[in-house]
Design a protein that fits this description.
heterotrimer; A alpha/beta (430); B mainly alpha (273); C mainly alpha (292); A: 430 residues; alpha/beta; D-Maltodextrin-Binding Protein, domain 2; 5-stranded mixed sheet; 3-stranded antiparallel sheet; globular; C: 292 residues; mainly alpha; MetI-like fold; 12 helices; 71% helix
Chain lengths: 430, 273, 292
């Protein structure tokens, strides 16, 4: 793992017991260029997530159809919570435990630059680049190299409680713009149908950056300028944060927002205690589950509202990658290709929407979720990407902390973002 | 005085039971009532417990059942091993004089002070090469390295509270040092051993980070990790977490009920010995 | 009282300590040394490879890192307040449980209850109780306070959750210590006309010092490396107000893959807690205590 090779450790420690232990450990692969393998046989271990998108049952069925066609390859899928996914990939990297891993859109730069996942640009058929949604390709791309194949498409949509809007006499059409959304929220508040029309996932976590990205994009802001320097502390970036803070000051946003994650937003919305929220695709299914929800049948999903400049949704896609430590890279890529293939994805469109552009016009796909697919078709065409930077996680932590400073009224938006920019610029350079 | 004491007992009961009963209530509230914040559910439901006990092992709730067993095996084995080596080693610290005694004790304590985060990656690599990832044995080995320093530290202090005259008497009667330890000291230290075992068991039962990284399937996943999976970015049923929590608390509480007599009464006996 | 020096004690000690040493150091020696070495290199990935030697610069970076000081402050506050609260409350509970009460088993079992709850659940429970929107705490108090909504209040709420759970272990260890104090000593003091309060300070506390030292050291170590409950309850927020050293180490080492820096942070934790532990033992002057 370190320059510290085994001999150095031995010299330093010099203990016989340690030598024995190290000998036992010397099977470490440590390779950054994995073996190709024959591609027709071998064992593959794959790391997926539970909770959302394709279910464990879906993946098991997809895998079964793959192994039926490739009887020489044995696949073992494993599932962990999204929250554990990153750390698991990091810990398993040096040991080469997994051949295939599922990564979030914000990780290809990190894992690619640290040589944990394999550059598969050469294996990409040329037509994929045109047949996939542009935003999908971003989930696997860093530095003009492709580190995997996109598999899951997601973004944040606007969910509204139509009953609340009716009572408050607010026109759902207004929600086409953020300005109109604000107007509706005021109307909702006045009518007393809810105390706080908005709740957001603004806890100090990645979820906060996702909401911010969507507003920043709508108001014409940018995370980075063309030279790669921080640009969120000017124009739309500042306006977005000021807008967010103002909704708290005006009592339109539930003050619990700064301690809430996506799941809390869902909970409050489902209890009918919020009227307009942003959330991922999964909430539509959850909000229409009569068992856990009192707003069934009153939920409408729409594109994220338009700002002064546009209406990009935050890119929340995920991609499947071959790890650098895999001994069966060819077979692993074959497996990934199967899972991400258009026919396979369309079969499970109910769980997660395909990365293929033409899928959104297929009746079979639309039928799985008629309320969502047409909105998705429009929204997934227009996505904003969080910076593809090696040190994105550190960048995001800095940004989260300063966004919270502004949301809690401890700093003015401009000051908070300037402070974040200072730190973030030095992170991006290192 | 007596009245005051009973009043304090009442207060203690409230402070302990209020959050705990909220946990129980939440585990029985249907999701929609839970989200409304009603104090008492109008339609209590046992469905979450039912899920946990009846659903297939591939579901999230079903995984819980298996992880309960994993946790029991891992925590019991860890406690047993750590306790045995801790009882032996603790005695050396309490009664024997040898070079580097202080240094050795602090070396053990220093291991306990290191945050697990610092060791996760190299440990993962070592376990991977020994093929112990995602196995109960791998977790047991890892947990012993945390629980043993705890046992050493507490046991050595329990030994110190025992009068040394008894051992000396046994030695005069011709007992070897080891014989005195096994026949005289250990029986006297029983309450200390039980208390140490109980808290050592809970240390292992409670551990989260190592388990999160080292386990991935029902082969070895432990309770804290299984419960953590109930909640996350895309799922939100606190009731299920609560139900899991109630069930996870049961084995340690039963153990405590079973052994509390030894923990406390025994101690008195030991000292007056 | 002093152990008699017997020839071969060293060998017997080795015999007694060898199993423990094997179980502990056999497992952790390699990771501990590897991490220690790593703290002297500029390691910025989990993957193997050549990383430049960094000397002490990772350690130096800790002290020039502006984010580190607030984090250290939170940790110090958390450690001092939670340990002190647990000690005071634990002492009260221990004295209570030591009194001749009816239903003793009931009260004693009650005290174990919070400790039996896994930290992960305890954190989720308090996050739920403290929720500003539908939390039961606001409902009971009839307030609308965002308990986890401002940095300092949130830190204190995390402490409340920690104290609720961990007072148990303190109470039990002190109770065990109390039982070793012969009743005659206290009765004698009372006969001499000492007040309850004076008896407590002049008879009970001095005899309890060994137990106090044990729990102080244990709780300080645990508090200083607190991670799980922060991870679940607040994720380090709001505005980084509940980030502790261990949580910060996690962010640096795992999320940001700055393993060299994370290793340096981890060793500084050991040095800080080690110093604290020695300080306690010195202050409590437990000369007959193990190791001192």
């Amino acid at each position: 793992m370190v320059a510290i090779d085994r001999r150095t450790v031995l010299r330093t420690a010099g203990g016989a017991g340690l030598a024995a232990l190290l000998a036992a450990c010397s099977g470490g692969k440590g390779a950054t260029t994995g073996d190709q393998g024959s591609g027709s046989s071998g064992e593959i271990r794959a790391l997926f997530m539970k909770q959302a998108a394709y279910t464990e049952a879906d993946v098991t069925k997809m895998t079964a159809s793959f192994t039926a066609a490739n009887p020489g390859i044995k696949v073992t899928p494993e599932f962990v919570a999204y929250e554990a996914l990153h750390d698991k990939i990091v810990a398993a990297g040096p040991a080469g435990t997994y051949d295939v891993v599922l990564i979030d859109v914000i990780w290809p730069a990190e894992f690619g630059s640290k040589k944990m996942i394999t550059d598969v640009s050469g294996q990409w058929p040329a037509e994929w680049k045109t047949e996939m949604l542009a935003g999908a390709i971003d989930t696997a791309e860093y530095d003009d190299k492709l580190y995997g194949v996109p598999w899951i498409m997601d973004t944040k949509y606007l969910f509204l409680n139509t009953q609340h809007l009716d009572v408050a006499n607010a026109n759902p059409q207004w929600l086409d713009t953020w300005e109109g959304t604000l107007k509706s929220a005021r109307r909702l508040k006045q009518s007393g149908v809810v105390k706080y029309p908005f709740i957001w996932s603004w806890q100090q976590a990645e979820a906060l950056v996702c909401d911010y990205a969507q507003l920043l994009g709508a108001m014409g802001g940018k995370f980075l300028d063309d030279s790669g320097k921080v640009a969120f502390n000017a124009g739309g970036g500042v306006q977005a944060l000021e807008w967010m803070r103002q909704t708290i000051v005006d009592g339109l946003t539930n003050p619990a927002s700064t301690q809430s994650l996506e799941a809390d937003v869902q909970r409050v919305f489902q209890a009918g205690q919020a009227s307009i929220v942003l959330n991922w695709t999964y909430m539509y299914g959850a909000a229409n589950d009569a068992k856990q929800c009192k707003v069934v049948g009153k939920v409408q999903v729409a594109q994220t509202p338009k700002g002064s400049v546009g209406r990009p949704g935050v890119n929340g896609g995920m991609a499947l990658c071959v790890t650098a430590g895999s001994k069966n890279q060819a077979a692993a890529f074959k497996y990934i290709s199967h899972l991400t293939s258009q026919p396979e994805q369309e079969k499970y469109a109910l769980s997660s929407l395909p990365v293929w552009a033409t899928s959104y016009d297929e009746d079979a796909v639309i039928k799985t979720n008629p309320a969502v697919v047409p909105q998705a078709k429009k929204q997934l065409d227009d996505l904003i990407l969080r910076p593809q930077a090696k040190s994105y996680n550190a960048f995001s932590q800095v940004l989260q902390a300063e966004l919270q400073n502004a949301l809690l009224g401890r700093k003015l938006a401009q000051k908070a973002l300037d402070d974040a920019a200072d730190k973030a610029n030095s992170l991006l350079q290192s | 005085m007596r009245k005051f004491q009973y009043a304090m007992c009442g207060l203690l009961a409230i402070v302990v039971l209020a959050p705990f009963s909220w946990l129980v209530i939440s585990s029985l509230s249907p999701a929609d009532e839970l989200n409304n914040g009603s104090l008492l559910p109008t339609h209590p439901t046992f469905s979450r417990y039912q899920d946990i006990f009846t659903s297939g092992t591939d579901g999230i709730a079903g995984t819980f059942r298996v992880s309960m067993l994993n946790s029991l095996v891992v925590a019991s084995a860890t406690t047993l091993i750590s306790l045995v080596v801790g009882c032996l080693g603790g005695y050396a610290f309490a009664r024997l004089r040898f070079r580097f005694r202080r240094t050795t004790l602090f070396a053990f304590l220093a291991i306990y002070m290191l945050p697990p985060i610092a060791l996760v990656i190299p440990l993962y690599l070592a376990l991977a090469n020994l093929h112990l990832l995602d196995t109960q044995l791998g977790l047991i080995v890892t947990y012993c390295s945390i629980v043993t320093p705890f046992c050493l530290w507490t046991m050595s202090n329990f030994y110190l509270s025992l009068p040394p005259e008894l051992e000396d008497a046994a030695r005069v009667d011709g007992c070897s040092r080891l014989g005195a330890l096994v026949r005289i000291v250990l029986p006297l230290a029983r309450p200390g051993i039980v208390a140490t075992a109980m808290f050592g068991f809970l240390l292992a039962w409670d551990e989260f980070l190592y388990s999160l990284i080292f386990t991935s399937t029902t082969n070895s996943k432990t309770i804290p990790v299984a419960i953590a999976e109930f909640t996350g970015k895309f799922s939100s049923d606190f009731g299920l977490v609560a139900a899991g929590g109630v069930l996870a608390a049961l084995p340690p509480v039963l153990l405590a009920l079973l052994f509390q007599r030894y923990i406390v009464n025994g101690l008195t006996g030991a000292v007056k010995g | 009282m002093k152990p008699v020096r017997v020839r071969g004690e060293g060998r017997f000690a080795l015999f007694l300590l060898l199993p423990a040493a094997t179980v502990v150091f056999g497992v952790v020696l390699y990771p501990v040394l590897r991490t220690l070495l790593m703290s002297f290199y500029k390691v910025d990935s989990a993957m193997p490879g050549s990383y430049p030697f960094a000397g002490l610069s990772n350690y130096a970076k800790v002290f020039s890192d502006p984010s580190f000081y607030p984090v250290l402050g939170h940790t110090a506050y958390f450690t001092v307040v939670s340990t002190a609260a647990e000690l005071v409350l634990g002492m009260g509970v221990a004295l209570l449980l030591n009194a001749p009460l009816r239903f003793k088993w009931l009260w004693r079992s009650l005290v174990v209850l919070p400790w039996a709850l896994p930290t992960i659940v305890n954190g989720a429970l308090w996050r739920w109780i403290d929720n500003g929107q539908y939390g039961v705490l606001n409902q009971l108090l009839g307030t609308e306070i965002q308990w986890l909504g401002s940095p300092f209040l949130a830190l204190n709420m995390v402490i409340v959750a920690d104290v609720w759970k961990n007072t148990s272990i303190v109470a039990f260890f002190l109770l065990a210590g109390l039982q070793t104090i012969p009743n005659e000593l206290r009765e004698a003091a009372v006969v001499d006309g000492a007040s309850t309060w004076r008896t407590f300070w002049q008879v009970v506390v001095p005899l309890l010092k060994p137990s106090i030292a044990v729990v102080l050291v244990l709780r300080t170590i645990e508090a200083f490396k607190v991670f799980d409950i922060v991870y679940v309850m607040t994720g380090g927020g709001p505005a980084s107000g509940t980030q502790t050293v261990a949580f910060y180490t996690y962010l640096q080492a795992f999320s940001n893959q700055l393993f060299g820096y994370g290793a340096a942070l981890a060793y500084l934790i050991v040095i800080a807690v080690g110093a604290l532990a020695m300080f306690y033992l010195r202050v409590l002057r437990q000369n007959q205590m193990a190791g001192v």
